[in-house]
Automatic annotation (TrEMBL):
Residues 491-529 are annotated as: Disordered. Residues 14-153, 367-496 form the Thioredoxin domain. Gene3D superfamilies: Glutaredoxin. This is protein disulfide-isomerase. PROSITE patterns: THIOREDOXIN_1 (PS00194), THIOREDOXIN_2 (PS51352). Disulfide bonds join 72-75, 418-421. Belongs to the protein disulfide isomerase family. It is an enzyme of class 5 (isomerase). The keyword NADP does not apply. Residues 1-17 form the signal peptide. One of its GO terms (cellular component) is endoplasmic reticulum lumen. Its EC number is 5.3.4.1. One of its GO terms (molecular function) is protein disulfide isomerase activity.
Amino acid sequence: LVWVLVLSLAWLGLVVGGEEEDGEVVAEEGDDEVLSDKLEEEDGVLVLHEHNFARALSEHQLLLVEFYAPWCGHCQRLAPAFAQAATALKDESSPARLGKVDATAQTALASEFGITSYPTLKLFRDGNRTHPLAYTGRMDAKGIVRWMERQAGPSATLLQDADTAAAFIGSQDVVVVGFFKDLESEAAQVFYEVAGEMVDMTFGVAEAAEVFEAYGLSANTICLFKKFDEGRTDFPLDPARGLDAAELTQLLRVHKLELVMEFTNETSDHIFGAKIPHHMLLFLNMSSSGQLALRDGFRAAAGTFRGKVLFVVVDVAGYGADVLPFFGLTPADAPTLRLVKMENNRKYQMDQDVFSDTAIRTFVQAVLDGKVKPRLLSAEPPEDWDTRPVKVLVGKTFEQVAYDETKNVFVKFYAPWCSHCQAMAAAWEELGERYKDREDIVIAELDAMANELENITIHGFPTLHYFPAGPGRKMVEYKSNRDVETFSKFLENGGMLPEEPPAVSKTPENSTGREETSPLGTAESRDEL
């Protein structure tokens, strides 16, 4: 269930990655142990520090280094997978090795490499410590191994003749082949670069005239071959424009997907990784033959919006059941349609569901044109919501409380599953008790999983906003330490902290961080300083 919740949060528009803006990169006083340049390992991972870092770079052609903090939850979750990947690479006799640096103790290394979040992974190649490459793969053992293997070997297979090309293209469900008259050209080098990054796809290159002829090509072209939908998509190269890595990457992300995706454990990675700005969702019970037939119109509408809107079928009686609460739905609501704008989690729905391809096209285009207003979720307020020390806000009561011109309102936006929210819950309750008799100050909280606001988008948890009394609908984001005394200083000083050095906390519970969850545990899941 937790894994499904993590996946579903991608449809909540959350910026991937947990954040802990902790502000601490401090060595423990008294840690004066003299370290040598000897290289030692823990679970196959090199333990690196200021004294042996240079040696590790000189002895290993490819070295992926994790900069971590011992208290960081994301780092702790990554540790077993990182160790498993290290062992797998060693067993393969790969030139690639994995290492780790405690960035809270090795402050000079953290500063040198600009470490601002945990975990941060950087790849060092051929001993070069001035231009490490940022890790862009998945944060699991298989993903790390695949990414490192791609960095260690050729990123694309050379297809020397038509028979080799045919066998290569038939070997996978999806393959990409770059047809270049000159494999040393600038465009070909960009292709190799993209192939090195997109480790979840298989890449080949062809230069021979017979291979060009076999596939009906006469000019430089990138072809995506797939065993579904149209079977082949060509991207001819414009000699004047050249080849742009980011543009090619996005084209491949979009066109490697089926025109209509089913939301499953196997496809969720691709759905969220495609970074398509809108998702059109058809919720249905796939055990009902009548509802299954609705996919025809849905599919017929999808082609018009390829690259702009991803069409996804969600089985309310299967893998998709646990995401229903995030859309305010139950299985009984199926079949129904929702369009989600990924940037800000805005959800749109028809006044009345119509499943024809014409109706779906019309609705989607209207949303893209800004002609449809989003439907905002709101829970019902508890009966005693305004009598508690901490007022419980919901979507429908937020405006009247937060923008009351006679009150200074301090609101915690939280998610029930967020560990950082749970860690600061007692402090927030204590703050409510402290100010419960103040007429001019209100301490409140809002469950951002169950409630949506028209003009405020929450990107991480917990988020704290202060709404000062008076006209103008002002809002101030609180970004300092999360403890009662600092909160009180902020409130007593009119929504700002006095000019004084902030206390450095040694535990994440009192940090200023927000926990943001990434779909699929990508490299963007981390705790920020």
